[in-house]
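Please review this one.

:::
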Amino acid sequence: MTVSERLRALAPTRGSSGTLAGLAAAFALLAVLISAGVFTRFDQFMLDHLAISFRPSLEPDHGYSGLYRPFTANTPTSARVLDVLTYPCSALLSLLIVAGAALLLRRRFGWIVALAPVAAWTIGNVVEEIGKNELTRPALYTGLDGLRFPVPGYTDSFPSGHMIRALVVAAAIVFVWRRALPFVILWALVVAPALVIDDAHTATDVAGGILVGCMLLLLLRAPFEVVLGGSGTGTTDRSYPDPSARTGSAPRIRT
């Protein structure tokens, strides 16, 4: 089987393509509504009542503080627990996890399957950067000493890159250790509210990250089926699904 045939075998099915289109439309609609301020009151309510560890700052958060460490020396204990929980979603640590999974997958399934989680991680980060650079929302406010002031870091925080990377990391772990599925699902479910409680993102940021993450998981569906059904070394064609099985047509029989 040639490289192009293997790539076609890993392409989304017609059913998956329809689901991808629906998720993309939902993401685009959510982005428009956030920019128009439709969800501002909702995000403000969640910020006021759920972000119990809020650490207000007048400076925008560019996401570098958690690049190489989960928290600083001045971080409250309650926030440290949440920071450690969400730390695998940081750019650096998530990349290390995904790259490690790729190296393990390479030995059995070849580079095409192995690079699938890496490609998903890259696409997710590109979508995050585009969203944060192109979309702005009305200001959200916090209180300090009886005063209300806007928090600049929330104006360009959609979608949540942490949530996107959480789903990609969960998929990468399951790729190499299937029995971890219940644990990574539980972790990903906890990460979503933790990002809001820890004041890292608004609720709609997280919702946008979930939509993008689900699209990436759909793109990883075919490679995951290879991992589930494959038993080869990465150089044999049997680790790749039969394209005819994805279209419903009968395979050609050579005589």
